[in-house]
Design a protein that fits this description.
The protein is of the alpha+beta class. It folds into two domains: 98 residues, 3-Layer(aba) Sandwich (Glutaredoxin); 104 residues, Glutathione S-transferase Yfyf (Class Pi), Chain A, domain 2 (Up-down Bundle), CATH 1.20.1050. Helices cover 47% and strands 8% of the residues. It has ten helices and five strands. The chain has a five-stranded mixed sheet with strand order 4-3-1-2-5. Helix 1 links the parallel strand 1 and strand 2. The mean pLDDT is 92.
């Protein structure tokens, strides 16, 4: 059986969470690392939007069945196998707040001056305010949806990692003790290390790179 093809970029938070779900589900893929400045034609043929991750389930002559949203890839993988019960730990509202307003402010906090002025002068503060519900949630349990990591933790984790990395000393000084413990716990997990090795950008004709547990 031909493994799915996954177009990915190591540091992209959307691709990161998809890789983590595929790995924990035990799904092996043919990994095609993408250089975002030189996107391969095969990626654009599979998904004209040209963002990663993109997964092609059947890389046949007809182009195959394509999943080009990271959350859909996560759910597809966990639908194959969900050994840690991640699907039970899905909070749609928290994920929507992360992927919507938090990501909006994160991008502008990371790259000041790149975006047109939208009336908000302190995007770092705006993003920080959106983390308060997570801190409250973590007062009730070690993970966002209970006693074990789940889909919501992994869906949000790469973005909070980026936010904390903008200014680690500043982030460490914020009144978020539970979130500040949650983040390094996920960073230190074997799962995160497993999905973060570096690969050369893929080009047509390269031998397959199999990626999975």
């Amino acid at each position: 059986m031909t493994p799915p093809v996954l177009y990915s970029f190591r540091r992209c938070p959307y691709a990161m969470r998809a890789r983590m779900a595929l790995w924990v589900a035990g799904v092996t893929v043919e990994l095609r690392e993408v250089k975002l400045a030189a996107k391969p034609p095969a990626l654009l043929a599979a998904s004209p939007k040209g963002t990663v991750p993109v997964m092609v389930l059947d890389d046949g002559a007809d182009g195959g069945s394509v999943i080009d949203q990271s959350l859909d890839i996560m759910r597809w993988a966990l639908g194959q196998s969900d050994p840690e019960g991640w699907l039970a730990g899905e909070d749609a509202a928290l994920i929507a707040a992360n992927d919507g307003p938090f990501k909006h402010h994160l991008d502008r906090a990371k790259y000041p001056g790149r975006y047109e002025e939208d009336g908000i002068t302190d995007h770092r503060a705006a993003a920080l305010a959106l983390l308060a519900p997570l801190e409250t949630r973590l007062a009730e349990a070690p993970y966002l949806c209970g006693e074990r990591r789940g889909l919501t933790d992994i869906a949000l984790f790469p973005f909070i990692r980026q936010f904390a990395a903008i200014d680690p000393a500043w982030f460490a000084a914020q009144p978020l003790p539970r979130l500040q413990a949650w983040l390094p716990g996920l960073l230190a997990a074997d799962l995160f290390a497993a999905v973060m090795p570096k690969f050369a950008p893929w080009k047509e004709g390269d031998p397959p790179v199999l990626f999975g547990p």
